[in-house]
Design brief:
With 87 residues, the protein is mainly alpha-helical. Helix content is 98%, strand content 0%.
Length: 87
Amino acid sequence: CEDIKKILKHLQEQKDSQCLHVEEYQNLVKDLRMELEVVSEQKKNIMKDMMKLELDLHRLREETSAHIERKDKDIAILQCRLQELQL
């Protein structure tokens, strides 16, 4: 009878210990899920920012190209005037 009580006590201690481990693991899983949510939100925001930056880059390239075209035309006009003045 005493041996059975010892065994039962030991089993109860093991059960209590395992319950603590289960609770710790559940808390870890909960923390990881929350961290995953945060990281997912950060990724979403980074992707939005990248899309905005790509649009800005595209716009700047178009503006630069148009600016270069205008300057090339201005140079051509000035070269024509210079040739006229040299005649």
